[in-house]
Amino acid sequence: MKALLKQNIAKHISLSENEIEDFCNLFEQKLICKKNFLLREGEICKFEGFVTKGLFRIYHIDKNGFEQILYFAIENWWITDIDSFTTETPSQLFIEALEDSEVLVISKKDKEFAYANLPKIEKLFRVMTQKTHVALQRRMIDNLSKTAESRYIEFIEKYPQLIQRLSNIQIAAYLGITNVFLSNIRKKIAVKK
Amino acid sequence: MKALLKQNIAKHISLSENEIEDFCNLFEQKLICKKNFLLREGEICKFEGFVTKGLFRIYHIDKNGFEQILYFAIENWWITDIDSFTTETPSQLFIEALEDSEVLVISKKDKEFAYANLPKIEKLFRVMTQKTHVALQRRMIDNLSKTAESRYIEFIEKYPQLIQRLSNIQIAAYLGITNVFLSNIRKKIAVKK
DNA sequence: TTTATTTATTAAACTAGTTTAATGTTTTAA
DNA sequence: TTAAAACATTAAACTAGTTTAATAAATAAA
After folding, report:
1. CB pairs under 8 A between A and B
2. How close, in Å, is residue B176 to chain A by CA atoms?
3. Residue B45 in contact with residue B85, Cβ under 8 Å?
């Protein structure tokens, strides 16, 4: 059940068999059915999760009621609201399952225990946070410099396995455009071919 | 000379007098005159810097020649291209001094030495990267959901000390709009008052 | 199996933001 | 101290993306 998690950790840092076992024992499995939430706006995020099955969207609802999707998480991705988690303030985000999903969850308490007792875990999360940050930095530049059309094309090239599982409404909310405009883009691309 | 650096580190984690001294000794000062570069596109970023005087812009030039500013860094801010630094690939960013500036620089080698020999430094950079990531995540949501006008108003409210030192061209490149449109926004705001 | 709900598409009017170009002002360089 | 370069503003034509609304198709619910 935790094989995927162990494999994921090993990609970032090298741990002894004991260390990885100790760390993984701090996680427990949660099942979240489609349309249910792992986190809602206003709650304080007291966990970090690793998806082993299914699909989540992490999104924000602005004061006009529009949704912006920060990212999607499928198998092998980590999920949390790092803002609420570290500052212990109410989250501004929703984490919602778009499919029936399974996630391995570690509590804030246990994560701090790991930091204190398994020194390499500190490195693990430094490295992971750095990688996440790099990805977001690239996305920020793309959003500042590219048209919605090329952002869409690059998205489907980068995550071909994801688009099949997402509605165009979700993709549009990720790209920062309306689903109507996404339809126009799709038509334009289809004509080109 | 390194008082500001020590103070900044103390804000994130607590170190003994010796630890902080050892770590700060790994930094050396660099002076960068206005319009000069700490890093250029294509170079591999082998340092992390802490600004003690002056002002930098960290930006990208897209294939159409437009500049997108990822962030500004004044006194008390850290600068690096975390992407190039961690992956050791050529940077896609420029780090340019907008004023005559002073920066304390630690090499990648020495930073790795610190990670290996001063365990709390691992925590320092994990915590700092987390904070930077939270800030970027908030900016991403703002860029997806807010108009350029409210992004501008929020920018001048959030960084009043910065705007006085920046041209409108720089501010526009940060907001992701043209300086012409920023002029329109400024006029509109001025009329309102 | 029928009905209700969500999704995708299209059209048409609209608005936020761009482009190009001209003009005056401020800053920098020689 | 003058010339050159960078900056800020304005106008006018344009384009990327939104809004509202209608319609058909697909999915979920009863």
Report:
1. 93
2. 5
3. yes
Q: So what's the pLDDT on residue B1?
A: 78
Domain of residue A54 covers 3-114
Residue B150 lies in a domain: no
Return all residues near B176 (Cβ < 8 A) that are at least 6 apart: A143, A144, B68, B143, B148
Q: B129 — contact with chain A (CB < 8 Å)?
A: yes
Residue A192 pLDDT level (bands cut at 50, 70, 90): low
Strands A67-74 and B78-79: unpaired
pLDDT at A193 over 60: no
**CATH number of the domain residue A53 falls in:** 2.60.120.10
A140 domain-assigned: no
A79 CB burial (10 A radius; 0-12, 13-18, 19+): buried
Mean pLDDT on A43-52: 98
B-chain CB neighbours of A70 within 8 Å are 137, 140-141
**B143 and chain A in contact, CB less than 8 A:** yes
Q: Does B112 fall in a domain? A: yes
Would A185 be classed as within a structural domain? Answer: no
Give me the number of domains chain B comprises.
1
pTM above 0.85, yes or no: yes
Express each pLDDT in B161-174 by its tens digit: 899 999 999 999 99
Strands (E), chain B: 28-32, 37-39, 47-53, 55-61, 67-74, 78-79, 93-97, 101-107
* pLDDT tens per residue, range A112-133: 999 999 989 999 999 999 999 9
